[in-house]
Write a structure and sequence with these properties.
- 41% of the residues lie in helices and 16% in strands.
- The chain contains eleven helices and 14 strands.
- The strands form four sheets. The protein has a six-stranded parallel sheet with strand order 3-2-1-4-5-7, with helices on both faces. Strands 6-8-12 form a three-stranded parallel sheet.
- Helix 1 (14-27) crosses helix 7 (216-228), helix 4 (87-106) packs parallel to helix 5 (142-161) and helix 6 (187-197) runs parallel beside helix 8.
- The longest helix has 20 residues, at 87-106.
- The structure holds 2-amino-3-ketobutyric acid (AKB).
- 2-amino-3-ketobutyric acid (AKB) binds at residues 79-80, 118-120, 143, 170-172, 183-185.
């Protein structure tokens, strides 16, 4: 009998780059199919890379059947800042990719799905501090609207067709293996590259903009953990709040200056400021802690030291 495999869609992006490595380590590279429109930067990490457009439903279904895929991690998406510039394309990508994958599960071709939601589901009228799991959700960005609609679809497919789809409301992610792309929280990755290369950085958010953030290793652990938790323990089928750390660009600059005392940040807020202002300062992730034992490991000090250690290597 052919072994079940895992398909990662959007494997060359920020989360995919790290997640594929971990999945390959755990399940064996021969069981992980990495797919994207663009090939991975580090080819040696990707044994099984295929070029795949998730919006090409016929090709997606063909590949899933051919490779005997049982689980899909759907990471392809247009993030918040990019989506504001390309509303229709982003709507199509973010929604139709999810529908295509949910349909594969409804037809029992695959068994399990991971799909990331975001803190972008919250809006200006959600509580700012320790934003709870269940609260007012009126996102003002098109990205947030796609994520909220996606959460509702996940719940619907679970209730109606017993589709095992699991999801996390991810904050801004900070990792060293790849740059972020098209998000409002991207400054928190770019700034590290600038600290190493130049002595200055111009931040597109104001110095006091506080946002929820997470080191990539924590995010990967959360994804692996929620996907391996027993089905009956997954009580939330929209998407779980998860949280690690919250800080402002000024606080991050201060932390970086411990390593690079001459580093200097200028602040020139642009259109992304409005998106950031609509998001929470911090997140309450009680349900994730109780239901599947979530706990973040990296605070601002630890993530800064890990970033510099790995980037300078
Ligand atoms: C973005 O900034 O758009 C993302 C997110 C918080 O979902 N990083």
């Amino acid at each position: 009998m052919k072994k079940n495999k895992i398909l990662v869609i959007g494997s060359s992006g920020q989360i995919g780059t790290d997640l594929c490595l971990s999945l390959e380590r755990i399940y064996g590279a021969e069981n992980i199919i990495c797919s994207d429109l663009n090939p991975p930067k580090e080819k040696n990490h990707r044994k099984n890379f295929i070029k795949l457009d998730v919006l090409d439903n016929e090709m997606l279904t063909k590949k899933v059947k051919e490779e005997n895929i049982s689980e899909i991690y759907l990471l392809a998406a247009s993030l918040s800042a990019l989506a504001e510039k390309n509303v229709l394309i982003s709507w199509e990508l973010n929604m139709n990719s999810l529908i295509n994958v949910l349909e594969l599960a409804r037809k029992k071709i695959i068994k399990k799905i991971f799909w990331p939601s975001s803190i972008a589901v919250f809006g200006p009228d959600s509580p700012k501090l320790n934003t709870p799991q269940n609260t007012t959700l009126n996102p003002s960005s098109i990205y947030g609207i796609t994520k909220l609609a996606g959460e509702k679809l996940c719940q619907y497919y679970y209730d109606k067709f017993d589709v095992d789809v699991r999801s996390l409301r991810l904050p801004g992610l900070i990792g060293w293996r790849s740059l972020a792309g098209g998000g409002t929280t991207d400054y928190a990755v770019e700034i590290f590259y600038h600290a190493l290369k130049n002595n200055d950085y111009t931040c597109f958010l104001s110095k006091e903009t506080i946002l929820p953030m997470m080191y990539m290793d924590d995010a990967i652990e959360a994804i692996l953990k929620i996907m391996t938790t027993k089905k009956e323990n997954i009580k939330i089928r929209t998407s779980y709040n998860i949280s690690a750390v919250s800080f402002t660009p000024k606080e991050l600059e201060k932390q970086i200056k411990i390593y690079f005392p001459n580093f200097n940040v200028k602040f020139k807020p642009d259109y992304r400021q409005k998106i950031a202002d609509s998001w929470p300062d911090s997140i309450d992730d009680q349900e994730a802690k109780v239901d599947w034992g979530w706990k973040a490991k990296f605070n601002l000090e630890k993530l800064t030291s890990e970033m510099f250690k790995n980037l300078s290597n």
